[in-house]
Amino acid sequence: MTAARVPHSAVPNHPVDAALAERLAEIVGEKRVLFRAGELLAYSSDGLPGYSKQPSIAVFPGTRDEVVAVVRELARRGAPFVPRGAGTGLSGGALADGVVLLGLNRLTRVLAIDSENALAVVEPGVVNVALSRAVSAYGLHYAPDPSSQAACTIGGNVAENAGGPHCLKYGVTLNHIASLTVVLPNGDIVTLGSASGEQEGYDLLGAFVGSEGCFGVALDVTVRLARNPQSVRTLLADFTSIDAAARAVSAIIASGILPAALEMMDAATIRAVEASIYAAGYPTDAAAVLLVELDGPSAGLDADVGTVVRLSRESGARDVRVARDDAERAKLWQGRKKAFGAMGRISSHLVVQDAVVPRTKLPEILARVHDIAERHRVMVCNVFHAGDGNLHPNIGYDANNPDEAARVHAAMREIMRACIDAGGTVSGEHGIGLDKMPYMEAIFSPESLGAMCALRHVFDPDRRANPGKVVPMHSCREWHAAPAARAESLQRA
Amino acid sequence: MTAAAISRSATSAATHLSARIREAAAGGEQLRIIGGGSWLDANRPVRASSRLTVGEHIGIVEYEPGDLTITALAGTTLDEITRATAAHGQWLTLDPFGNPARATIGATIATASYGALAHHFGTPRDVTLGVEFVSGTGDIVRGGGRVVKNVAGFDLTRLVTGSWGTVGALTEATLRLRALPTTQSTLALGVTGDTDVERVRAAVRRLPFVPMAAQLLDATLASTLGVSKRGAALIVRLGGNEDALRAQCAEVSAIAPASEVGIEVWRRLQTSEPPRAATLRLSRLPSMFTATWRDSVHIAERWPGSFCHGDPGRGVCRIVLPLSDDTNHASVRAILDVPFDGGRIYERLPASLWSSLAPSAMRGPLDRGVKAAFDPQNLLNPGIFGELQ
Questions:
Q1: Which pLDDT tens digit goes with each residue over A349-367?
Q2: B151: chain A residues, CB-CB within 8 Å
Q3: A22, A107, A109, A101: which is closest to A62 by C-alpha?
Q4: Whole-complex ipTM
Q5: Is A91 on the interface with B (CB under 8 A)?
């Protein structure tokens, strides 16, 4: 690369570090280092519209060795960086604000499949659904299935501890990771966890999963695979009130039946889906539908289906339909998985939240959400993982209308507050990133936030990996001082 | 008080422990954390002049059956949780080996101890949703929460689970519950010789469902538990609605002739360990279970009265050597200190053997960094991970 290639910065007030860009190009090749404004535009947002942050340089290593070399080069220069998979995240977590963006989406190899032990070793850029496809010949699949699974990567899933509809029965990403090889921000390579025997000691694997790119970069991921169920039944229950649908959710959960998935969509979502190319045949006059999936051995499954049908009807369902074949089942799911896309068709901007409430609080919270939306004159769509109590209230709007935007954001803040007051939390699967950071102090004490900063400090003492995300900076300052100094001050106290 | 205020506020147990730890910090006094006290006979090396008692903080803080979660103070015993939840047709799927009348939920999480139910339901790492603990600096810290799905912030819950009190003293935990299956059945299958172990392992893996538990018992244990008088046996715990259970029983019976042995066998297995023992866990990939089982049987055969059992699905075997006052520790060492290429974890040992047999669990800079961040003066359970060796 010649210096002439790096004339202007893409970021105002952030001069491109030409020497760094050149050095990175030596590692990964010129074509894999971007620094012009036009080139970087695609990397200025993630799956959550509403934020725009421009990286200074975007670098795309193609091999594990290149990733390590890039991270070590950044460490040598003390340069902050943001790891990024497919950029489908919904919390602004993969945005690089004037720092280096480290794209891992070229590392797409499935390195090993061990069908006997239901394990696979993959590179971080392997797309979620591609992994399930790669192991399907063995009767296996990768269980966590975020709605973005056609695009999102396993590395990104690990960073976010991603969920998905089927996490109700099968658990989130954390429950499916056996071990990781990680390059720490300082360039050291460590193995966390073990697939081939128990270890005693700190669960650093558990700490790393869900650390939102703040603890380092996964080089390879050993995932646990799930066996394909013998049989699957997918039901659509149709309700004339949201409250009745919420009561059905509570009744199903309390019955002891653990559905593979238990999803709710409200009238606004149903209408958006049915008006889009993803139309799934949902009843457009329903106030809410539940999409319930039961899976497992064939024996006993129909008895559970019967129970779910009965409980739904007892809670007020107008109709309960069981998908007749795989095609109908796929159609019902497509409507759910593409619901956000369908809503994007209607509005130019979308805010979406990810709060979780105790499941018994669902009817109460959904009523609160309705009241709040009415009061602020905004239209909230609810499409969410009801079985987990994981709400995704989302509001489409026009960000160019300041009055509307203000009402939307005020409504969202109130909704979040209501969820927290109900004993809930602010993110079930999307992560904190940038978007939910302001809520962290509402759910965690300064000591708890300080402890999170302390944990981050163990992995990244310089806070160069995904800087400014997850835990508000001022919380870190409170803990911040070196442990020895803290101990000293305690002794003085 | 709103629920949010509750989630940020500290329990009185934590306030109490925080004051005690700060006092200890001021005097440089090292503390051994004591829950129900049942782990003390593991003889883990702890160099502490004083005790920090957490076992007195007992009670269920919140239990809403419809949420399938429970929040309890750390000193609450597993039996107390079982009693509260069974009344609502629910259970906590943690059955660590030991006495559940004495084992506290705090110690179970702190040691990441698990039992036969881990075959299906996982370990405390999979079941614990949130914790409150007091760090070595006296800070009262909460991780996770009371909901079943939570990615808010870095995962302090996982960090403290299995940390043996070296990160902080647990004061409260929220756990995921399950509905008790409508019907249950436990079947025993005779297993003879390595060929049969491998055949049974592969057959269990091929079942179209994951049993709630599956344990291979050596002849000694099978006989003690009254399962078999003629050698090793596999016991399998099944459950579900009536149709499901009938099909499960048929599938398992097709592996080998099976007999119903009654659900009580699981409690007998859980409490089968003698009061004094050396206990070792060996693990490799589940596909190598037969080899791991052979290694375990080989160790058990060399010590009178010892027994072993294993979970073919998890690839883990457990060997228990009963000890007495007269036991020569050098001979225990000679039996246990054999080459093994997988995971080796000692649960209990004579005090004199820890330093020579058990490797330090503080493997690298990250482990030492965690300890330094949460307990910079090394006040809490110093030495329990072998870090001072």
A1: 888 999 999 999 999 999 9
A2: 160-161, 163, 172, 210, 427-432
A3: A107
A4: 0.96
A5: no
